[in-house]
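Example for tutorial group B:
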């Protein structure tokens, strides 16, 4: 395991620990996929029925959305265009690929481009999770920025079109999407309760076995072994984006994995982390990334505009804030 993977595993174990009941109420399986640790806890006695199916869903999602697998659909999209070709397309795309591209473009439009899957050239340039990441030269950042812009893509039937060179990275939404698929699958099989932790996203199915509501701890960005408070929820999804998840430090500055599509640099706002609570898993994931990029004031204005139905907890430089609809469900520490 690379250092970042071990770090991630520890962080995720802590989050799942704080969001579940005693172990003997669950069958549990851990899977490492999509560059993260996935912990699936289901109703005691149901693990044998469902774990293979869950693993199959994750493998299939990775086959579609991975940026690094050679034959994934994202890689086929990214490698099938060139600068010379002004207008090109990938046809015969799978239904999940088309669905998630359409949803991503919708989130981009509604968040004014804070969320943007065409961020790939910048993700590649920064290579935050690489062996020895460096701050790129500004000229490289400016070059990469030329290729970023969700307006350069559109979808018709099962064909994804683009203008000029466009490469995509679905890392900010594919985990949430897959989590949603897993929870739907477990629900359809009549699993009474389940709790899945999936790279900063949590899915809560059914009612907590020991009664009462589910608890999800919100990590303290300055000490991820601790929390700033706890959300108490009936179910649904929580997606967290934070500056502590993947980063490197250079000359006292933290360069993390969430890039501002307008500047090309890791988003520098007053938000340290944001947790989005929502009934739609991929929307929760996409929005957590977008709100992080916006910063607190813009994120709150976006919430108040009611473009989407969600709630959020913001850990900012000034303190912890919640949106109106969730304030009674959050217990600060
Ligand atoms: P998340 O942890 O869900 O906020 O997703 C962050 C990941 O999404 C990064 O590791 C990148 O792969 C990708 N990403 C970074 N910045 C953005 C952005 N502004 N919009 C969409 N995806 C992004
Ligand atoms: Mg996200």
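The residue assignment follows.
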């Amino acid at each position: 395991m690379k250092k970042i993977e071990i770090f991630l595993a520890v962080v995720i174990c802590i989050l799942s620990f704080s969001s579940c009941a005693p172990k003997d109420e669950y069958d549990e399986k851990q899977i490492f996929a999509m560059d993260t640790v996935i912990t699936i806890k289901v109703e005691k006695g149901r693990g044998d029925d469902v774990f293979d199916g869950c693993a199959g869903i994750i493998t299939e999602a990775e086959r579609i959305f991975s940026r690094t697998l050679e034959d994934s659909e994202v890689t086929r999209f990214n490698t099938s265009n060139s600068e010379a070709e002004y207008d090109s397309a990938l046809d015969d795309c799978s239904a999940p690929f088309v669905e998630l591209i359409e949803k991503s473009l919708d989130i981009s439009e509604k968040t004014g481009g804070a969320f943007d899957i065409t961020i790939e050239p910048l993700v590649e340039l920064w290579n935050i999770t690489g062996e020895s990441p460096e701050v790129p030269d500004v000229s490289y950042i400016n070059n990469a920025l030329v290729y970023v812009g969700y307006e350069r893509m559109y979808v018709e039937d099962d064909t994804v079109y683009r203008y000029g060179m466009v490469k995509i990275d679905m890392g900010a939404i594919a985990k949430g999407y897959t989590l949603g698929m897993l929870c739907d699958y477990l629900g359809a099989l009549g699993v009474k309760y389940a709790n899945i932790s999936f790279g900063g996203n949590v899915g809560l199915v059914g009612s907590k076995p020991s009664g009462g509501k589910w608890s999800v701890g919100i990590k303290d960005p300055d000490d991820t072994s601790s929390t700033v408070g706890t959300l108490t929820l009936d179910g649904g999804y929580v997606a967290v984006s934070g500056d502590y998840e993947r980063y490197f430090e250079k000359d006292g500055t933290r360069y993390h994995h969430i890039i501002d599509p307008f500047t090309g640099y890791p988003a520098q706002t007053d938000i340290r982390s944001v947790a989005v609570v929502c009934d739609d898993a991929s929307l929760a994931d996409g929005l957590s990334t977008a709100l992080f990029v916006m910063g607190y004031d813009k994120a709150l204005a976006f919430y108040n505009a009611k473009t989407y139905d969600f709630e959020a907890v913001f850990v900012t430089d000034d303190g912890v804030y919640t949106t109106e609809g969730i304030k009674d469900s959050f217990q600060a520490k």
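Residues 172-173, 239, 241, 285-286, 288-289 surround magnesium ion (ligand 2) (CB under 6 Å). Compare this with the pattern of hydrophobic and polar residues in the output above.
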